[in-house]
Amino acid sequence: MGCQIHSLHPQILLKIPTNKPIPKPQLQTRTITSSSTPSISISTVSPENNPKPDVYNVKFKTLGACKLGISRYPDFAYNAQGGEGSGIGKKMVGVDFNGETSVDFDVTTLYIPPLTTATTKFLGLPLPPFLKIAIVPEIFRGIINLESGKVDLKFKAKFWFSMGSIYKAPPLLVETLLTSEESKGSLRSGSGSGRRLDEEGRCKLVGVATVEPIDDFFMNSFLDLPTECLAILNATITFSKDEDFKLNL
């Protein structure tokens, strides 16, 4: 299974001169020693002769029909349409990295819609107009396999719960692995809910995280903290290469 990579510019062909010999890679040797094992010498190709990794622009967009859940409460039906972010992807070079690309999103520009009466329903009813849960990302990065479509992204964010101007709780810190595979905790589970990237970049990511108590008696009691939360997120992740990246290959 592969993911579609869009090119923003025509392909650039590079010609290799035939009147100059192609230099052979220079080997460098380094020795690894340990108090419990014999020394091991490893020969590697010098960095100047290593091929530079492919570099991509990566776009992330959230879609509708998502779910969020916490503790033993029923899940929220969450419409995340309109969320977006961008980052840089670098293809991992080596025999052990078959199609894997490391991705790092810019959290300063990453936007995920808040849970409000316009985006979220609980037990079939919209949230009350005064209730809002804002999501502020702190980390969003990981590995995407462009051959198999497998996605593993570390996600860390603060969830700010507020009721109008009368109450604002300290943030709930959530840290999880959003994956296209399965995610399972002791209380919540996203088993079988994930879906790998298809040729249009669509995927479904699931993640289960532990939420620790905060300095707020009401929230700790209401949510029965510590507890687990669940995220099921429909999204698109697309890759593109521009001319500047091609010239640096």
Q: How would you sum up this structure, described in words?
A:
By secondary structure, the protein is mainly beta. The protein is 5% helix and 45% strand. The longest helix is centred in the last third of the chain and has 7 residues, at 217-223.
Helix content: under 10%
Sheet/helix structural class: mainly beta
Question: Measured on Cα atoms, how large is the radius of gyration?
Answer: 23 Å
Mean residue pLDDT:
82
Q: Tally the helices: what do you get?
A: 2
| SSE pattern | EEEEEEEEEEEEEEEHEH
User: What composes the largest sheet?
Assistant: 14 strands, mixed
Shape: elongated
Total number of beta strands:
16
Portion of residues in beta strands equals over 45%
Contiguous low-pLDDT stretches (5 residues minimum) are 3-20, 27-47, 243-249
Alpha carbon gap, first and last residue: 25 Å
Brief write-up:
The chain is mostly beta strands and 249 residues long. The chain has helices spanning 217-223, 243-247, and strands spanning 5-7, 27-32, 40-45, 55-62, 66-70, 76-78, 84-91, 100-105, 120-122, 125-126, 131-145, 151-163, 167-168, 172-179, 202-211, 227-241. It has two helices and 16 strands.
